[in-house]
Every structure is written in C-alpha cells, then in structure tokens.
Amino acid sequence: MEIVIGLVILAGAVVAVVATTHRARGLRTEGAAVVENGRPSVGVVPQGTSFPAPRGAVALEEEEAEAPAGPSTADLREQLDLELVQRRAEVGRIEERLLGKEQSIDVKLADLERRERGIDDRQRNLEQSQGELKSARRDQLRELERIAGLTSGQAKQLLLRELEDELEHESARMIRQAEDEAKREADRRARSILATSMQRLAAGHAVETTVSVVQLRSDDMKGRIIGREGRNIRSLETLTGIDFIVDDTPSTVVLSGFDGVRREIARITLEKLLEDGRIHPARIEDVYDQAVSEMDGHVVEVGEQAVFDAEAGVLHPELVKLLGRLRYRTSYGQNVLAHSVECANLAGTLAAELGASAKCARRAALLHDIGKAVTHEIEGPHALVGGDIARRYGESEAVAHAMEAHHNEVELQTIEAVVVQIADSLSGARPGARGESLEHYMKRLRDLEQIANRHEGVEKVFAMQAGREVRVVVSPEAMDDDAAALLSHAIARDVEKELEFPGQIKVTVIRESRAVDYAK
Question: How many CB atoms within 10 Å of residue 418?
C-alpha cells in the first residue's frame, strides 16, 4: 500500500513539473513576440512604393497638434520588459518549488524502496519459519504416533468412537429422564381428568339377570297357562322363543331367555293373557302381535330417552330403535343401554377436558355397542358390525371409526376413539357395574395362572385384583431383563387369544436379582 501511495505522489509531481515548464515557455514566447512587435521595422523598401510628398514643418506641427496623445514606443517596451522580468521571476520560483518537490519525492521513493526491501526480508523469514514449524509438527506427530502406537487416522477414529459412545449414553440418559418425567406428568394429568370426569357422573349399579318373573293371582292359572296336553305353553314358547318355567314356586311363572327383547315381549304377552282370561293358541297369537307392536313403540321411546340423556343430538330413527333394543341386553350382568349412556357422558367429559370433539365422542360412545342389538342376526364382532350400521345410517367416519376401535378391532387413529375406549373401560370396570358367577370367576383365575405357568423360566404366578392383574415371578438365572419384557408380551397375547374378559388384564413380570454374602 505504501508503494502505491508513493507512486501516486511521484506521478502528481511529474505532472506539475511538466505543466509549469509548459507555462514558462509560453510566457517566454509571448514576451518575445511583444518585444518583436514593439521594435521599428528596418529594411529595404520595395520598388514601386510611393511615398507622400513631404510637407512643411508647419503642417507637421499642425498634424501633431491635432493627433491624439498616446504612449510612446519606449514606454511600451519598458512596460513589457518589466512584465517579462516579473514572469521570469515567477517561473523561477515555480521551478524552485518543483525542484524541492522532486527532491522530496526522491527521498520518499528511497524510503519506500527501503521499506519494501524490509517487507520482502520479513516475508522470506516468515515463510522460512512456517516451513520450520510444519517440519517440527510433522516430526512431533511422527514421535507421538511412535509413542502411542497409533497413526493419526486411527487416533481420530478412536476419539470419534469414544465421543459417539459418550454422546449415545448421555442422550439415552436424557431420553429416559424425559420419558420418565413425561410419564409422571401424563399419569398425574390422566388421574386428574378421570377423577374429574367420574365425579361428574352418578350412575346406578343394578345388575341385570336373564330371567323375568310373572306373578299369578293363584296357582290355578298355571294349569290354564300349560293348557290341554301343553298346547298353550308350547304355543307361547314357539312364538316368543322364551322358556316358560312353571314349577312348584307359589303363584309364579319364570321366563328364561338371553334375548331381553323376546323375554320382555313374552312377559307382556303373558300378562295380557292373564288379564284377559282367555288363553288358547289363537288368542295367544293375537295377544303376541299386540305385544310386539307395543314393544316396538316402547323401544323407540326408550331409545329417544337415551339419546336425550346422553346429549347426543339427532340420530337416525333406525339407530334410535336399535338403541332402545339395548335396554334388554346385558353384558356381564350390566345393562347395555345404561352402559352406553354412561359411556357417552364419560366420553363427553373426557373429550372436553382433552380438547377433542365432545359431540363426536358422545355419539360414538352412545352407539359403540349398537352392534350387540343385531349380533344374533349379523355375524361378526359387534364393534365392526356397529360401525357398518352407523355408516349405513349417515354417521360420520370419525364416529364409525371410534365405534370400531373401542375393542382394538381396528387401530386407534383419533383422540375421540381413544376417549371412547377409555370411557368403555371405566364404565365396565367400576365396582358393582358388572357381575359374574363365583364359578366363572374362579375358573378365569385358574386359566390365567395356567396360561402364565406354561412358559419357561416361570417360578410363581399370582392372579391379583379379581383377575385384572397377573404377577409372574421368573428366575433371574433363566432370563435377563429383555427376555422378561418379551415374556410379559407373550403372556398378554396368549390371554387375549384364549380368554374372554371385560376391560383389560395387566401382566407384570417380576425378575428379582439378589446378591448374598456372609461376614465371618
């Protein structure tokens, strides 16, 4: 940069010298021309030149007197000489200044050249030092490789592997910590939401049965119900599909059947016959038709009331009718319609707490068991059958999917489907909501223990919490922690395949490792 500045200054000085010299020459030329013009012309007069006739002295004096007064030639010459001297003096001063500038520029150029030589020397020294440093680093690297027994590439790979392992362990630790924190927070929020939802719901715990009882005015009516050679009772059982049990129980006829709608129709038919007093096959058929018509209207009323209680909005009339039929269906002793209404209220509350669609959750939860109303007519899982029926009568895909997924027949894809599944489990798992016989209960516990015991490495099996949890103790020498996790999954899948149960069963595998020593 300093060299460039010096060159620029030198070029400016040269231009100034040239301009000043040119100006001085111009002044000299101009002065010479003025002097030359002021001199009288002396020369030979060309031939043929005519001269005016000489005039007398008096005439000349008159002309001089008449001519205007002006500067003489001597005055002009003196003025020009003075101006020329002044300009020459100015030119001299300019030349002196230029000479001084030239000398200053020469000094600066010499200084620039000296600095440039110094820079070149330092550059050469720097390059030499860099070369020596690189050579020393190479020697140092070779010495380090010799001492460590590793090349630089191998050392880099080793360091990278150590860093990767360290980062992997650290990331795994952070992930586990985040997962544990998320699980604790999710468990806390889930408990809070479930507690809030269940506190807002109050439901009865009446357990339904599969029999109906009709009271008689007297035992004499039993003979009339049976009829001559049993014609009346056979006609009743053929039309209704229900067993009429007429035994020694005083003033009582028991109607037994798993189809609640048919059992209710049979009850209405028998009560009307007893009220009318005329009991014979033809009258039985007429009264049965009246009971069926009355039952249809009653089913619609029950369905409409259920829709109103569940706050599910407007449903297709056929869906309302199917809902009404659920009033006479039970699941493990729990009335299916009451269970559906309870699920709808729970699902609506849960969906509102979770920010999901409460309307969709209520409709899906109310209709989730509607397939049970026609399972004896259409084959297939009631959840899938119910989903098809819902689509057929104009329900949205979100509602149909939530209905189909509440028993995991299809994969859960929406929050509303998860909410319906949770509401179904809550309603069925509440104490007193469902009941089962002691024999069936004990058999289920034995089956659970047998399924778990047939796996290798199992030492003990305990069915806990009324069969809702199975705790499996395994030998620590027979399997590691990963195998224990796989065992719990395998036992859960076997239980799903071989047993039918409401809600869910928790499988816990316990692998206890002990280290024992004695101080002597």
Answer: 19
If residue 224 lies in a helix (H) or strand (E), which one and from where to where? helix 220-226
Q: Model's pTM, two decimal places?
A: 0.49
Q: Could you report the per-residue pLDDT of 238-249, keeping only the tens digit for each?
A: 888 888 888 877
Query: Strand pairing of 252-256 and 506-511?
Result: unpaired
Identify the segments of the chain with pLDDT beneath 50.
Answer: 4, 31, 34-35, 37-61, 63-65, 67-69, 205-207
Three-state secondary structure call for residue 464 = strand
Is the Cβ–Cβ distance between 236 and 244 less than 8 Å? yes
Helix %, strand %, coil % of the chain (to 5):
70, 5, 25
Q: What pLDDT does 377 receive? A: 66
| 73, 77, 80, 86: CA torsion to nearest 10 | -150
320 to 88, 331, 333, 472, 486: CA distances (angstroms): 127, 20, 23, 46, 45
Pairing of strands 211-215, 252-256: antiparallel
Q: What is the DSSP letter of 54?
A: P
Distance CA 371, CA 390 (A): 9
Tokens of 415: 């929050």
> What is the DSSP code string of 155-213?
HHHHHHHHHHHHHHHHHHHHHHHHHHHHHHHHHHHHHHHHHHHHHT-----PBP-SEEE
As to burial, measured by CB atoms within 10 angstroms (0-12 exposed, 13-18 middle, 19+ buried), residue 401 is buried
Q: Quote the CA–CA distance of 503 and 501 in Å, as a whole number.
A: 7
